[in-house]
Amino acid sequence: MTAVAARPGRASADSGTDPDGRAITWLAFRQVRRGGLIVVGLLAGMSATVAASYASTVGDALDAAALAALAENPAIRTLFGAPVALDDPGGFTVWRTGTVLGVLAGVWGLLAATRITRGEEDAGRWDLLAAGRVPLRAIVRRHAVVVVGMLLAAGFVASAALAAVGTAPAGALLHGAGLALVGIFFAAAGVLTGQLLPSRGRATGAAVALLGTGLLLRMVGDGVAALGWLRWLSPFGLVALSQPYAANRVLPVAVLLVAAVALLGAALLVAGRRDVRGGLFGVPAGRPPRLRLLGSVPGFALRRLVGPLGGWALGLVGYYLLIGLLAVSMTSFLAENPRFASLAAQAGFGGLGSVEGYVAALFTLLAIPVGIFAATRIAVVAGDEADRRLTLLYAQPVTRVRLLTAEVAVTAGGGALLCLAAGAATWAGTTIVDAPLGPGAALAGGLNVLPVVLLCLGAAVFALGWLPRTVAPVGALPAAGGFLLQVTADSTGAPAWVGRLSPFAHVAPVPDLPPHWFASLTMVIVAVGLTIFGALGYQRRDLRG
Amino acid sequence: MDVSAIRAVGLTKHYGSVCALDALDFAVRTGEVFGFLGPNGAGKSTTIRLLLGLARPTAGQAWIFGTDAADVGTAHRSVAYVPADVALWPGLTGAETLELLGRIGPGVDRAYRDELVERFALDLSKPGRAYSTGNRQKVALVAAFATRAPLLILDEPTSGLDPLMEREFQAVVSQARQRGQTVFLSSHQLAEVEAVCDRVGILRAGRLVEVARVPELRRLHRSQVEVTYRGPAPTLTGVAGIETVEELDPERLRFTLTGPPGPALRALAAADVTGVRIHEPTLEEIFLDYYTRVSR
Questions:
Q1: Is residue B284 within 8 Å of B39, Cβ to Cβ?
Q2: Searching chain A, which residue's CA lies closest to the CA of residue B78?
Q3: Cβ distance A12 to A126 under 8 Å?
Q4: Which letter, b or e, does each residue of B161-191 get, where b requires 16 or more Cβ atoms within 10 Å of its Cβ?
Q5: How confident is the model at residue A350 (pLDDT cuts 50, 70, 90)?
Q6: ipTM (interface predicted TM)
Q7: 20 to 30 A Cα–Cα from A227, which one of A204, A239, B44, B255?
């Protein structure tokens, strides 16, 4: 006997090179590789495309001075961040795509992290993993490392792509690192909330709330000069402060790195101190029954909607209240600088000169969160089916069309409520600062994006019927994909028809201009068609689970 | 007129190139307790999913009390179902789940439901995510039996129950039969099936190979008997129920015994037997025995 192959007494699973641990890393990788590749592709592709076409879009078509003046508009600053180095292809790309791609990386990071950690644990699959030789903390660590690795790869490829199309290497590196770190920060937050809270929905909700707060802090910090320091408290703000292609500051990015590492460390610390399937904060073992809204299928759909709807409403009301509050700083700015208003109008951003134009531009963005809300609600139905929770309901005299109709109705109603809440919050904000915006105009602006939301709902129902594994991405496609398409098409000078594919090309800036009734009606008809076609598929196919 | 609780004609289900069910024909009479046996993967759960309209048959059709099984709005007014692996809403407590299923379902006998909760010793205040496998199954059992639906479809309902609860389950099934309810019980627990079922259907690789009354099922049982003796070997040829006699050692032999043991014992009494060991076959052995016999 010359060597001992294994130590039976003590597992060496945490050492990082053993086959058990590698199998877990591979398992985690398999669960995120598809989404991760899409993130890599979007970060690198959008950045490189916008930078490469800079000469043709900005260099020729737009006067750089006009663009710079426009960029001083607080509305634009709030939307896209403070522009620096717009005279540089890289700087322009950072300003035009940085926030969008940062949000994309952050949302994917936190969703992937909570899905493969808390989601898998909720489903009971981690019982098997944790029964093996690898301790829980190492399981969590390996899953976190895989998501972090994916985001690092995305940032690195984005840097390489930006450098390849000829932007300054230092700026490219800093921007790629910033994007990756924003994603990693929120992935780490997702891992941490997944350790603290014993359900995937709550863990995701808490991490999304953190992302929303970070975005709000960045917006306030960018929009209101006196509150610029708030950006140091937000991952998005820190990335903005690093000013790639201009000052190229490393300190803010280093702060973000430290914060992300601290969150990961905290997550691993908690992972070692809790039970499998439990969180650090437990759930009560029992409670008296609450029997409201349990008497019918639509009632039950409503009951399950109320909690998530409240969370979405809270986030959107906070965001649009801020939009309203910022309106006055923008109008006073434009009043003092009439030249900027005319320059903005020349550049085709005419509406932004007025309160109506400013809120209209921001109401258009409302389609994205509310569209994603609609897609996630139908994705929850698909998840309930896959996890067999619908089996007991469908064993009752409940047809699939009846259940689906109830879900679609409450989701559409919830979407409309969110639009109205955003409109009302904006009106409240503008009223507080005495900006001229009527309540009717504000509510109309909110409701104006409802057709895009219904498109998302229709796409999600279509996916539920025919591609039930892809409900969330297909449902989010009209809003999130449409927005990315519009930003890319706008910034790269793509043929006009490419941009027209996006639903956003057909959304009028209400209340600045009247709604496009024909386009809205067309979108609603397409949405209804998708819903009916999806319902047919749902009725005909076998239930999963 | 069709009075069968369940009737299936040519019921077939393919998943891609895999044939899960191959032209199933059977009927369950109103008021009987029908056991549905088969090893894992034989197609028991697939059959139930087709009967409940959760999956669509590739060919053939099933009827529940004469209503097309696909018309779930009508058919399910007379059906209660307990799945093999019960998934509850994680945020709803047991009481809330029972309320939901009771009010959406075909109506519920609340007094009987409270009695069942008592008998199954079920704590209704816990949220769904906190229940163990057995307790989730109990919630589904209480919900199903409390409906008094004329047809109960139970898919391995006792796989997570302890022996005490298993006994309670058998008592509840007997009471359901006394009330005239029809029970379709899928199981691979032969003892349970023997205790409560009037007839059984045996499924093998997607085909129904036998539908028999329970006494007939006993012929599937083969005990192994090992005998040690002194002197000449007992004469066992031609004795009823004895098959495959093997001589293990000098003065030790083994045979399989099917049916009543009387003739075999009388044959053994003629010899100088020093020891007898009867090994009752496990469920698995019976199934293996049965399935290998059928496939020959």
A1: no
A2: A397
A3: no
A4: beeebbebbeebbeebbeeebbbbbbbbbbe
A5: low
A6: 0.83
A7: A204
* Closest to A211 (Cα-Cα) out of A184, A243, A249, A229: A184
CB contact (8 A) between residue A283 and residue B129: yes
What tokens were used for B5? 């609780």
**What is the residue-wise DSSP string for A328-350?**
HHHHHHHHH-HHHHHHHHHTT-G
Tracing tokens 């045996």 back to the chain, one arrives at B202
Assess contact for A388 and A319: CB atoms under 8 A.
Answer: no
Tell me the three-class secondary structure of B96-153, residue by residue.
HHHHHHHHHCCCCCHHHHHHHHHHCCCCCCCEHHHCCHHHHHHHHHHHHHHCCCCEEE
The predicted pLDDT at position A66 comes to: 61
Residue A260 and residue A254: Cα distance in Å, rounded? 10
Q: Pick from A294, A389, A397: which is nearest to B73 by CB?
A: A397
Amino acid at site A308 = P
The alpha carbon of residue A244 is apart from the nearest alpha carbon of chain B, in Å, by 46
What is the DSSP track for chain B? ----SEEEEEEEEEETTEEEEEEEEEEE-TT-EEEEE--TTSSHHHHHHHHTTSS--SEEEEEETTEETT-HHHHGGGEEEE-SS----TTSBHHHHHHHHHHHTT---HHHHHHHHHHTT--TTSBGGG--HHHHHHHHHHHHHHTT-SEEEEESTTTT--HHHHHHHHHHHHHHHHTT-EEEEEES-HHHHHHH-SEEEEEETTEEEEEEEHHHHGGG--EEEEEEEESSPP--TT-TTEEEEEEEETTEEEEEE-S-SHHHHHHHHTSEEEEEEEEPPPHHHHHHHHHHHHH-
Tokens standing for residue A463: 């996916």
Report the pLDDT averaged over residues A104-115: 94
Contact in structure between A92 and A56 (CB atoms under 8 Å): no
Over residues A491-500, the pLDDT tens digits come to 777 788 888 8
Confidence check: pLDDT of B123 > 90 = yes
pTM of the model: 0.83
Residues of B with CB under 8 A from a CB of A: 49, 52-56, 72-77, 79-81, 83, 85-90, 93, 95-97, 99-101, 103-106, 123-127, 129-130, 140, 143, 153
Question: HSE on the CB side for B144, CA within 13 Å?
Answer: 29
B277 φ, ψ (degrees, to nearest 5)? -125, 120
Q: Determine the distance in angstroms separating the CA of A539 from the nearest CA of chain B, rounded to an integer.
A: 10
